[in-house]
Amino acid sequence: MGVDRSEHPVLGCVADYSGTVGIDLYWIPLGAGARVVRASGRAFEALSAFVHRRPRCDLYHSALVAVTAEGSFGIEMAPIPDDLGARARGVVSEGPVGARAAGRVRLFRYEIRRWRSGIIPDLADAVASPVHLTSDSALAQQVLDLVPSVPTPTWGRDELHAGEMWNSNSVVSWLLARSGLDAAAGPMPPAGRAPGWDAGLVVARRAR
Questions:
Q1: Which residue in 38, 69, 45 sits closest to 138, CA to CA?
Q2: 58 Ramachandran zone, left/alpha/beta (phi>0; psi -120 to 50)
Q3: Backbone torsion region of residue 96, taken as left when φ is above 0, otherwise alpha when ψ lies between -120 and 50, otherwise beta
Q4: Residue-level pLDDT at 124
Q5: Mean pLDDT over residues 141-166, rounded?
Q6: Closest CA to 61 of 46, 78, 44, 48
Q7: Are residues 6 and 40 in contact, defined by beta-carbon separation less than 8 angstroms?
Q8: What is the share, in percent, of the chain residues with pLDDT greater than 90?
Q9: pLDDT score recorded for residue 44
Q10: Which residues make Cβ contacts (< 8 Å) with residue 108, sequence separation at least 6?
Q11: Could you give the CA distance from residue 49 to residue 158 in angstroms, rounded to a whole number?
Q12: What is the crossing angle of helices 168-178 and 137-146, to 10°?
């Protein structure tokens, strides 16, 4: 079943999207539309590469687009832009950023979205994407059904003892592992790294 991209702003961001029912994975360069995020990400990666004595990598933020008979859904973790539009953005849960106590302030909370016809910022800048993970409509629905169950520990911390911090990439990899699609994701873009990806896999495999 095809989907008309003109009616779905998420899909319209990617000119060559096929509109096929299923799940697509996108690798978005960290800070593609925000200089501060891009600069802080590069500083983080430079320090990490120095500590672990490895070459620097390009950092990526991952997101999913699910297409079912009901339409398209953007799935990702993102900052909370306001206190007014949670329902409109398809928000299913929230969590703290940096420190659990700081989560009382909106600036230090994140939200997990399952946004029908929603916009994923900077999707057009995605690299080596989309990665079409499945055309199985039942699996696509399973991923959507799992979104409210994603753990919401503190962003940037390892509260779940997974070996690395929890972040947006953890949300995506957790969903893929719980639905059995993690192997279909394949390798990351060349010279790329997605901090937090392994944390999602570890936590999801515990549940399985």
A1: 69
A2: beta
A3: beta
A4: 87
A5: 96
A6: 78
A7: no
A8: 58
A9: 61
A10: 96, 97, 98, 99, 102
A11: 19
A12: 130
Count CB neighbours of 101 within 10 A: 10
H or E segment to which residue 46 belongs: helix 35-52
pLDDT digits (tens, 9 = 90+) for 38-85: 556 455 655 555 566 767 778 889 999 999 999 999 999 999 988 888
Taking the alpha carbons at both ends of the chain, their separation in whole angstroms is 31
Give the model's pLDDT for residue 4: 38
What per-residue confidence (pLDDT) applies to 105? 86
Token pair of 110 as six digits: 């994140």
The residue whose two tokens read 């999207």 is 17
Which secondary structure element, helix H or strand E, spans residue 72, and what is its range?
A: strand 71-79
**Model-level pTM?**
0.84
Give the whole-angstrom CA distance, residue 121 versus residue 119: 6
Between CA 130 and CA 132 the distance in angstroms is 6
pLDDT the model gives residue 85? 86
